[in-house]
Amino acid sequence: MSQAVRRALVIKHGALGDIFLILGALQDIAEATGAPVDVLTMSPYVKIFKRSPHVNRVFVDNRQSRLNPWYLCELRRMFSDGAYDQIIDLQNSKRTLFYRKFIAPKLNWCQLGIIPPTEFVSQTISSPVLAKAATQLGNCSIGTENLLRGDLEWLCDDSEAVSRVSESRCPVILLPGASAAHTHKIWPRYAELAELLIKEGVDVFVAPGPDDMELCKSISGRQLLSGERWLDFFQLAGVLAKAKFVVGNDSGPTHLAASLGTKGVALFSQRTSQYAPNMARKQMGVMVSNELSEISAESILDLIKALD
């Protein structure tokens, strides 16, 4: 006798790196409930969730003021109209605790609250964020196989940029950027590394983002663009999946490479080193130094040469 289908809503507002971390869980939850899930997220991430074959509908919650009665009324209606059997809160924030207490208190919530991920220690999971999510799903009788090792091929688009990378014998992709609010995360030696790699006969590709088009123009190598614009999430996923090695900062694109299982290294300073364990997964390594400028281009070159 088949298991009854349960309706589930997954809450994940952001940020981009954390969303890439938990995408595999969508399949675990869909398999446990017997049907694709609904998702509540912020508008910049809607297209990512809509792309998943394990998602039915995506609702936007841009986290307006909790003093706005119209916003709260719409939020309450969304929870009520969905007739959900379970709310799986992968955001686990003060805001989503508020939702549980005041917006949808009668629904069945799978939630761990605002306990810091660093409190969740696992001998088999290096990422605290993943360890917390695995604990939460396990507490709700949901498997974690895809959370930890899931196939995210559905993120990858084919494009002219993918063809260029695929034709290369030894494609190394540099991800030099970060958001405009986090320029302190940018390693300053990408141009130097690119020159060293080219001298070694490596095909260097540079993938700019919306905030670092000018930075990437100063780095030798072939620019990965769509026309004159940066690649979107899905085009970028397609090229990252074809790379032999990726070098990036603590950024969403580097998290994407890690989630896809691409070999690479992510560079951290001591200022952001607490986030390094969340990047170190599958085949992505991390390198941490007191200051980013102390990481030499030669040390990254040695990592890449060791692959041969």
Helical content stands at: 25-40%
Biggest beta-sheet profile? 6 strands, parallel
Structural class: alpha/beta
Kindly state the mean pLDDT as a whole number? 95
Morphology call: elongated
Rg value: 20 Å
Order of helices and strands: EHEHEHEHEHHHEHEHEEEHEHEHEH
Q: Please indicate the percent range of residues in DSSP E strands (runs of 2 or more).
A: 15-25%
Sheet with most strands: strand arrangement: 8-7-6-11-12-13
Helix tally equals 13
Number of domains: 2
CA distance, first residue to last residue: 53 Å
- Would you identify the CATH H-level superfamily of the largest domain? Glycogen Phosphorylase B
In terms of quaternary structure, the protein is: single chain
Number of strands: 13
CATH topology of the largest domain: Rossmann fold
As residue ranges, the low-confidence spans are: none
CATH architectural type of the largest domain: 3-Layer(aba) Sandwich
CATH class of the largest domain: Alpha Beta
Explain what this protein looks like in three dimensions.
This protein is an alpha/beta fold and 308 residues long. It has 2 domains: 8-150, Rossmann fold (3-Layer(aba) Sandwich), CATH 3.40.50; 155-305, Glycogen Phosphorylase B (Rossmann fold, 3-Layer(aba) Sandwich), CATH 3.40.50. Helix content is 38%, strand content 17%. It contains 13 helices and 13 strands. The chain has helices at residues 16-33, 46-51, 69-81, 94-103, 128-139, 145-149, 160-166, 190-199, 213-217, 233-240, 252-260, 276-279, 297-305, and strands at residues 8-11, 37-41, 55-60, 86-89, 109-110, 171-175, 203-206, 222-223, 225-226, 229-230, 245-249, 264-269, 284-289. The strands form 3 sheets. A 6-stranded parallel beta sheet has the order 8-7-6-11-12-13, sandwiched between helices. Helix 8 crosses helix 13 (297-305) and helix 10 packs across helix 11. The longest helix has 18 residues, at 16-33. The radius of gyration is 20 Å and the shape is elongated.
